[in-house]
């Protein structure tokens, strides 16, 4: 349905969801979202709108009058909670797309999260920073470095005037600053910021946490580009080890829980429905995408190194195999499991070899059962 903005009631503006200029195309689903062109409508649909159309229909409907104060407060709190859920969902989706290299597609979700964060929390509050950082990362990926600097400046200023800002948020700021300096070719400044990222993340989560591993990974990439292979390889090894410990522990806990449940219900462990419907990576969609990005990048680097360390390659493949298994992609899990077996032929580590063999048996059982 096309809408003529000049025919709107006085004081009512129809603005494009993406660029905020006057709009004349209405979404036929929610009927509360507008666009200046079919191109922007399509971009928003791909980015996030198809996933939130019904939610926006609820959030953007005209405010109803409730006679009692209690009803008004109840309605207000319900709407605020709905908006907060939308903010988190949009941020997770946008971050997932960034890890997948879909920088342009991530922008609509990032913009939506920022718009509703301002609506819920107000202007210049610390709760806006995650959206600023996502917008900055998208801008870096698109080569819009000036725009990225503007978003990072807003995030930095907000953090500076928030004394109780968490180190987790500071870590994300420094990581984005590091990525900005990498894009500028200033590797020394990038290393300084990645070091600050690791420092803050380590304090918040620990030095061997998967949320700290991203800082090690990006710092290793800088050393790799500088030709400082020994340092880069040692940091990649640390990233591999962190993810191996996390994924192996998560898989073990999942399988143990399923065995207990199977015994309780007197069901066979081999039932794909029993195991695969309940198993979880413990990560959200963005974290899964980050894990794939990090581990796949290291795998590609290790696979093409003429003097590669066989154990590092084997463990990276095993990491990817476990990750895909936990995500429910059995074919990819088996594919990387096989690659790990090939790479581990020269590895003298009985514990690792046994773990890999047991994992492959588990994959086979699930594929057959499925």
TrEMBL record:
**One example GO MF annotation:** zinc ion binding
Source taxon at top rank: Eukaryota
List the InterPro entries hit by this protein, alphabetically: TPR-like_helical_dom_sf (IPR011990), TPR_rpt (IPR019734), Zinc_finger_MYND_domain (IPR053248), Znf_MYND (IPR002893)
Q: Where is the MYND-type domain?
A: 16-53
Q: What is the lineage of its organism?
A: Eukaryota, Metazoa, Spiralia, Lophotrochozoa, Mollusca
Question: What is any Pfam family matched here?
Answer: zf-MYND
Q: Which keywords, in A-to-Z order, does the entry hold?
A: Metal-binding, TPR repeat, Zinc, Zinc-finger
Show me the TPR repeat boundaries.
171-204
Keyword Zinc assigned:
yes
PANTHER family for the chain:
ZINC FINGER MYND DOMAIN-CONTAINING PROTEIN 12
Q: What is this protein called?
A: MYND-type domain-containing protein
Q: Which Gene3D superfamilies match?
A: 6.10.140.2220, Tetratricopeptide repeat domain
């Amino acid at each position: 349905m096309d809408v003529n903005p000049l025919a709107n009631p006085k004081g009512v503006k129809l603005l494009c969801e993406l660029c905020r200029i006057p709009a004349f195309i209405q979404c036929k689903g929610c009927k509360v979202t507008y666009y200046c062109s079919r191109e922007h409508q399509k971009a928003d649909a791909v980015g996030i709108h198809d996933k939130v159309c019904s939610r926006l229909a609820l959030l953007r409907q005209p405010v109803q009058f409730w006679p009692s104060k209690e009803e008004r407060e109840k309605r207000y709190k319900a709407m605020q909670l709905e908006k907060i859920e939308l903010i988190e969902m949009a941020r997770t989706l946008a971050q997932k797309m960034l890890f997948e290299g879909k920088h342009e597609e991530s922008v609509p979700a990032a913009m939506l999260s920022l718009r509703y964060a301002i609506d819920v929390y107000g202007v210049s509050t610390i709760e806006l920073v995650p959206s600023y950082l996502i917008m900055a990362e998208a801008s870096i990926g698109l080569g819009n470095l000036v725009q990225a600097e503007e978003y990072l400046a807003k995030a930095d200023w907000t953090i500076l005037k928030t004394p109780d800002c968490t180190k987790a948020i500071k870590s994300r700021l420094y990581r984005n600053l590091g990525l900005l300096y990498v894009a500028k070719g200033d590797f020394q400044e990038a290393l300084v910021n990645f070091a600050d990222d690791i420092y803050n993340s380590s304090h918040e989560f620990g030095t061997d946490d998967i949320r700290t591993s991203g800082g090690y990974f990006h710092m290793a990439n800088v050393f790799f580009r500088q030709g400082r292979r020994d340092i880069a390889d040692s940091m990649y090894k640390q990233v591999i080890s962190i993810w191996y410990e996390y994924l192996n522990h998560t898989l073990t806990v999942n399988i143990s829980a399923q065995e207990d449940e199977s015994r309780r219900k007197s069901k066979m462990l081999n039932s794909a429905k029993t195991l695969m419907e309940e198993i979880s990576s413990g990560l959200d969609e963005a974290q899964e995408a980050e894990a794939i990005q990090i581990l796949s990048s290291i795998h590609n680097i290790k696979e093409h190194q003429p003097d590669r360390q066989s154990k590092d390659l084997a463990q990276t493949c095993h990491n990817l195999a476990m990750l895909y298994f936990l995500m429910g992609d059995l074919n990819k899990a088996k594919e990387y499991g096989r690659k790990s077996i090939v790479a581990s032929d020269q590895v003298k580590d009985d514990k690792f070899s046994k773990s890999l063999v047991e994992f492959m048996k588990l994959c086979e059982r699930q594929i057959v059962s499925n």
